[in-house]
Write a structure and sequence with these properties.
Blueprint: H1 4-21, E1 29-35, H2 39-53, E2 57-63, H3 66-79, E3 86-90, H4 91-100, H5 124-127, E4 138-150, H6 151-157, H7 161-165, H8 168-182, H9 191-197, H10 221-236, H11 247-255, E5 260-264, H12 267-275, E6 283-286, E7 295-302, H13 310-322, H14 324-334, E8 337-338, H15 341-344, H16 361-371, H17 381-398, H18 402-418
Parallel strand pairs: 1-2, 1-3
Antiparallel strand pairs: 3-7, 4-5, 4-6, 4-7, 4-8
Helix pairs in contact: 1-2, 1-14, 6-8, 8-10, 9-10, 17-18
């Protein structure tokens, strides 16, 4: 949760600087911002400070649950009704929304956002870029991939951090030792392995499921290796077979029956805040196994083409995404890793994290952010993802042949993409 006292300190520190740029360019304006938990907390905490800049602007925050928000925004963009002025968008939806044509092109006048793009981690802006080169949104926060693990369970098992991270086969071998020594599972689900490996080894401009020529890539060695490793995890009996965010998942992390979890760096805040606060000092963070670098989640702000207050919306988005102090406040109080490079270079990154046993983990998270490839997104990525997940389930549950299910998945994706 964000800290109101800290935010107040930030507000006082910024008062003089921001006052110099404060304007009254608009008449009394109500700016509607649509968001979702916990991205909405950044908006809520910023409202008092923004009022110092623009006392004539009232911020109306409309927040719905993650799925409800994005479904509502999908409908609003399609129908042109009930649209906010500023739309919060999560990583999983940004490609679809960027391709919808319903958001303002922020590279065009009067926004001219191209001049700001180098301010952000290189992999963020391409995620919000449409097929015609339009820019649909500005990144606010990111989720550099990290491996969180229980140090005490590793010690009991005679396993080291190097055993977990050397390569994927070493990671699986370590999981077998952990299960034998402690009874704890290595991971929550074998799917976690697949999700990382299919994102490994990509270069800037490449996509996960489609290449630059729009060809489907799910029959590549990258996917075959991902399926092989996931199957090895399941056959070894070292995944708990529970989905992320389920009650079984949170209980497994809380009780230590799940020894490691690969996810965005923000998971550390969730562990400390509500999942396992009593496990303070037991968890650690590391880079992902096998030198993999990937992003988990991330949030963006866009402006619908039919928004009523576009100029005010753009000023608010710049305030939330390009103001170092606001980005640091969200980082410090919400564990929202900033997309803004200037904020990533703040000394806060070098501070030890008490929950992680005093580890200076944010430095590794920043290293990961620097090395995540600028992947291309495709409007059919969500469809391809679901088909691939179904294919993996066939392998894990019914021992289906990997080559066969991937060939069938490629055909299904091709059919769905033609619709």
């Amino acid at each position: 949760m964000f800290n109101k006292k800290k935010l107040g300190t930030v507000a006082l520190a910024l008062g003089t600087t921001l006052a110099l740029t404060a304007t009254s360019a608009w008449a009394k304006t109500t700016l509607t911002v649509a968001s979702f938990p916990s991205f909405d907390q950044a908006v809520n905490s910023a409202i008092p400070l923004y009022k110092k800049l623009h006392p004539e602007v009232e911020i109306k925050l409309v927040s719905l649950a993650y799925g409800d928000h994005h479904n509502a925004m999908t409908t609003a963009l399609a129908t042109g009704g009930n649209l906010p002025d500023v739309m919060g968008i999560e990583y999983g939806y940004i490609g679809r929304f960027a391709a919808s044509g319903g958001l303002e092109d922020l590279r065009a006048a009067p926004y001219s956002a191209e001049q700001y793009e180098k301010l952000f981690s290189k992999f963020t802006v391409p995620l919000a870029t449409g097929g015609s080169g339009t820019l649909a949104a500005i990144p606010a926060d990111i989720g550099p991939g990290a491996l969180f693990y229980r140090e005490d369970i590793l010690e009991k098992s005679g396993v080291t951090k190097a055993d977990l991270t050397k390569d994927w086969d070493s990671y699986i071998a370590a999981g077998k030792k952990i299960k034998e020594a402690t009874g704890s599972y290595l991971v929550s689900s074998a799917t976690d392995i697949k999700d990382i490996v299919i994102r490994s080894g990509l270069k800037d401009g490449q996509g996960i499921y489609f290449d630059a020529d729009n060809s489907i890539t799910v029959e590549s060695d990258r996917f075959k290796e991902a399926f092989r490793l996931a199957k090895a995890v399941r056959e070894a009996g070292i995944d708990a077979q529970v989905g992320a965010w389920s009650s079984e998942w949170t209980e497994g992390l809380r009780r230590g029956t799940i020894a490691s979890q690969m996810m965005g760096a923000w998971l550390g805040g969730h562990l400390n805040g509500w999942i396992a606060p009593e496990s303070k000092g037991l968890w650690r963070s590391s880079h992902l196994p096998a030198g993999a670098y990937a992003s988990w989640g991330g949030s963006f702000y866009g402006i619908p083409k039919k928004a009523k207050n576009k100029e005010a919306a753009w000023e608010f988005i710049k305030f939330m995404t390009m103001n170092k102090e606001m980005q640091i406040a969200a980082f410090r109080d919400l564990d929202a890793f900033p997309a803004l490079i200037e904020a990533q270079n703040d000394d806060f990154v070098n501070q030890p994290i008490e929950y992680l046993g005093g580890q200076v983990a944010r430095v590794e998270w920043k290293e990961a952010a620097d090395r995540i490839p600028a992947m291309d997104v495709h409007k059919h990525d969500p469809v391809a993802e679901q088909i691939i997940n179904d294919a993996l389930e066939a392998v894990l549950e019914r021992d289906a042949d990997i080559d066969t299910v991937l060939a069938d998945a490629a055909k299904q994706i091709k059919r769905r993409a033609r619709r």
